[in-house]
Every structure is written in structure tokens, then in C-alpha cells.
């Protein structure tokens, strides 16, 4: 939601897609999600830029390592500038028409890990993320409180086992 409130064009495009595909007066259903490529791209882009479990727990490379001829570079993969154009910008469009997924098959984007220790809650988490975000965007118009400008939003993150906003987001919903 923070990235959408900071990027009003993205929020407007997500609303438009929801209005066109499921209709202004209908509630979002799980079966609608496969027909919402832009909402799906927003979820992927959020998981790239703000991975909720950023360290993949104990499996982060602290230095460049080579294993069986494959180089595992040090550091955060979601913002690697050799893989992603403009890696620090929130651009869901980068996933439209792209085969990169978040399910452990695309090694440049591993918010749920990969292989035998991949997150077993992935399928539940992805269902919930699309339903929650899609319902919030589709059901309400959103504004920032007290004349706060999008560019003034505090993007500081609290680093830990899971990554969260350092301070909660305050936003004002109006029923559409
Ligand atoms: C957006 C939501 C979530 C993200 C980004 C996420 C991410 C991750 C990551 C990165 C790992 C470590 C994988 C590895 O070690 O390679 C993990 C492990 C795990 N996750 Fe999740 N997770 C999410 C939601 C959930 C949910 C909803 C559940 C349970 C209902 C869950 C249960 C677990 C468990 C049990 C493990 C440990 C698996 C093992 O070590 O064998 N996660 N998750």
C-alpha cells in the first residue's frame, strides 16, 4: 500500500484493471486473480523490493562464493543492478510479459527461497496477498492524511527476521 500511495499512476492502473476485469460493483474472488496481470505484477515487484524475509534466514552469501562452477554473489539479489533495470524503483511493469516468478524457479527473485527448504506457506501467502491488496484497492479510494505528499512518505524499514515498515502507514480510505 505504501508503494501504491507513493506511485499514484500505479495505483490508478491497478484500480482500472480491477474495475475493467471484475466490475466496479463486484467483490474480488480468488478465481479472478489469474485474470489480473497488473495486480500480480505489483505483488511480485513488492516482494522484489521489500522481501518480507530478506535474509533467506541462514542462507545468505556473506562473500562471493563459487560452488560447482556457479558463482553466488554476495548480498541482496532483488536489487542486483546486473539483473534489474533501475533496481531501486518500484516498477510492476517490469513483470508484465516476463516469465520471472516468485515460486522458486527464477533464481533472480527468491522471496520464498527455493529447493527443499522453500517456504511451505508460499501458496497460502500468495493467495492472501493478492486478495488483500486487490480488495483494498478495489473497494476504497485512498488518500494520505493531513496533506502529506507521497514523496514525504517515510520509507524506513525495520530490519529483523522479517522486514517491516519502521513506522506504521497511516492512510485514509473512502468507500467508492
Ligand atoms: C509473504 C509471506 C511469506 C514469505 C515472503 C515467506 C518467506 C519464507 C522464506 C524466505 C523462508 C526460508 C526459505 C529458505 O530457507 O530457503 C521461509 C520458510 C518458512 N516459511 Fe515462509 N514466508 C511467508 C509466509 C509463510 C506462511 C503464511 C507460512 C505458514 C502458514 C510460512 C511458513 C514457513 C515455514 C514453516 C518455513 C520453514 C521451512 C523449512 O525450513 O523447512 N511462511 N518462508
TrEMBL record:
Transmembrane segments: none annotated. The lineage of its organism: Eukaryota, Viridiplantae, Streptophyta, Embryophyta, Tracheophyta. Heme binds at residue 119. It comes from Linum tenue. Coiled coil: none annotated. One of its GO terms (molecular function) is iron ion binding. It comes from the Eukaryota. PANTHER family: CYTOCHROME P450 FAMILY PROTEIN, EXPRESSED, CYTOCHROME P450, FAMILY 76, SUBFAMILY C, POLYPEPTIDE 5-RELATED. This is Uncharacterized protein. PROSITE patterns: CYTOCHROME_P450 (PS00086). Keywords: Heme, Iron, Metal-binding, Monooxygenase, Oxidoreductase. Belongs to the cytochrome P450 family. Its cofactor is heme.
